[in-house]
Amino acid sequence: MKIFKIGGLFLTVVFVYIQFFSTERNESSLLLVTDIDVVYEVPSEVKRIFNTSCYDCHSNNTAYPWYNKIQPFAWLLESHIKKGKAELNFSEFGSYSIRRQRSKLRAIEGQIVDDKMPLRSYTLIHRKARLSKNDKKVVVEWVVKLRDSLK
Amino acid sequence: MRRVKTVSRVLVAVFIVLIVASCESNNKSQADHEKAHSEMTDNKTQEKAPHADEKVPVNHKISIEIIDAYLVIKNGLVADSKPQASQGAEIMLAAFTNMDLAHLPETTLQQYMEIHESAKEHAEHIKKSSIDHQREHFEILTTDMIDLVALLGTDKTLYQDFCPMANNNKGAFWLSEIEEIKNPYYGAKMLSCGTVKKQIN
């Protein structure tokens, strides 16, 4: 019994201790000249979908949920955002070479068609971020169109 | 009491391991950064070094290693072998790192770097992904390779093949070293689907 008591106490101490670590917030009020919305004409419907389902991890602005105030969840979020932005950052889309932009657009199409993005672990909590059939169609059609125009 | 002591010792040990692990990942990214830095300076110093073997055009030397690695990936996918494809990707990444670009003229270099950057990204994904995802990246990698061959040329005989069913029936190309069709997009499922569209050399 004592083992559980000590173990529990230890975990509590650890839990309280890690609360003192803060993470860097992914927030910026700047609209970069490289933002996809500046570089290309993004239809409002596509913009809405990007905003609710993609930008939390693929832009310089995350709409943080309440549990970002609690560790270790904040760390988890931070690592997801970091990885997401390294793969694709819509705020810096215009800084990619045309070749890379085309390849990213192709990848977006693939990820959405295959239901790989948005991540399930993300939509599990962010129910609004789930893409409807129509959402998918709208985004895929637009990225295909944009890709074909970048030749 | 002794038991309690052991348990708390174990817990402390676990805690320390966790902390060390998290520090280590930080250090690692820093080390990568430094490595990239030193590679950059290396490239600069090599710029004026004369090339040893003058017989093979420099451009071809660059393209040959990358294409060979590409073909390993391609043959891995033909054989439905995820490990072989990811091994090919590893070879490609190594080829990119060891590349001597000193003799490329500036305009070529610029175009080459765009292909390099893009292809490297795909190789990184192919290295660590499931075979479906490998095939997706392979399709885009192929466009990079076709452009690379057009830019730098090659001594190799290559066949540019096309499968109309791949990429959700939009069709996709691949490069092959053999004339016979062996489809990397479907492997054993549809090995002979496709046609030769073009022969290079």
What topology emerges from the helices and strands here?
The complex is a heterodimer of chains A (151) and B (201).
Chain A: H1 2-18, H2 36-39, H3 44-53, H4 55-58, H5 73-87, H6 98-113, H7 120-123, H8 133-149
Chain B: H1 2-46, H2 58-78, H3 82-97, H4 106-128, H5 131-152, E1 158-163, H6 166-169, E2 172-176, E3 195-200
Helix pairs in contact in B: 2-3, 2-5, 3-4, 4-5
Summarize this entry quickly.
With 151 residues, chain A is mainly α. Chain A has helices at residues 2-18, 36-39, 44-53, 55-58, 73-87, 98-113, 120-123, 133-149.
Describe the structure.
The complex is a heterodimer of chains A (151) and B (201). By secondary structure, chain A is mostly helical. Helix content of chain A is 58%, strand content 0%. Chain A is built from eight helices and no strands. Chain A has helices spanning 2-18, 36-39, 44-53, 55-58, 73-87, 98-113, 120-123, 133-149. In chain A, helix 6 (98-113) packs antiparallel against helix 8 (133-149). In chain A, 25% of the residues are buried. Chain B is mainly alpha-helical and 201 residues long. Chain B contains six helices and three strands. Chain B has helices at 2-46, 58-78, 82-97, 106-128, 131-152, 166-169; strands at residues 158-163, 172-176, 195-200. Chain B has a three-stranded antiparallel beta sheet with strand order 2-1-3. The longest helix of chain B has 45 residues, at 2-46. The radius of gyration of chain B is 22 Å and the shape is globular. The A-B interface holds A 2-3, 6-7, 10, 14, 97-100, 103, 106-107, 110, 113-114 and B 3-4, 7-8, 11, 15, 114-115, 117-118, 121-122, 132, 136, 139-140, 144, 147, 168.
